[in-house]
Amino acid sequence: MVYNYTKPRGPIAAMYSSPGPCYSLPSLVGFPNHDPRSNHLRGAQWSFGVRHGKFNDDCSPGPCYYPDSKVLRDGKDGTPHYSLYSRQKESLIFSNPGPGAYTPENSDSSVFNKAPAYSLSSRNKEFKVDDVPGPNRYNIDPMLGKTVRSQKQSAPAYSLSSRTKLFGAAETPGAGAYNVTDLNLYHEAAPKYSVTGRNQLPTDTTRKPGPWAYYPERVNVNSKSAPQYSFGIRHSQYKGEFITDADLDQ
């Protein structure tokens, strides 16, 4: 049996190495390259003229040269302008004190009677340097030990002598140097138990599948099944090339 290929009704994209057929359609704008057999209406086409060279350069001054809007033909407009001058210096004739310079509330001492007031004079220079020693210049005899000039009884004083070389090092053993005898040697011994290790029988250590690894419902060897057919491989000349690992390395 020979398989006859069906002729394609339209173009196949794999048959073209260039962009798709949509780019080969004629334009619908204007008369150039317009297909009269097209069912679509022709679109309008406009063209822009060339800018004249005369209007490219602007020879007039910019906006910064525009005159002020307040300047008219006869000069500036009639809006009044005022200026502030500096303050003139006061004349020496008017340098008398004003009413705020007087303090009549301080005149009580000269008008009314007041209590006597005394002032403290300055310190005399002769007594500025005091040659008498202060309290911290005296040394009081201590009360411990023998008192020389004091009539009070001194407190007892003790002294610690130095350590002698004869009894300096303790040559006798301490409490930690003795070994304590086990009580089980001269008393009734307590019971002792020992736990032995677990003994395992030699078995196979390889892993084996369990009951869940089997699928008995998929076994159809002992039952009838429907016929099954397979198709061969179709070879197409339009089959694309696959990307290999060598292409990715590049």
From TrEMBL:
Listed GO CC annotations: cytoskeleton
Source domain of life: Eukaryota
Name of the protein: Outer dense fiber protein
Pfam families given in the database record: SHIPPO-rpt
InterPro entries per UniProt: CIMAP, SHIPPO-rpt
PANTHER family named among the record's database cross-references: BOREALIN N-TERMINAL DOMAIN-CONTAINING PROTEIN-RELATED, SHIPPO-1-RELATED
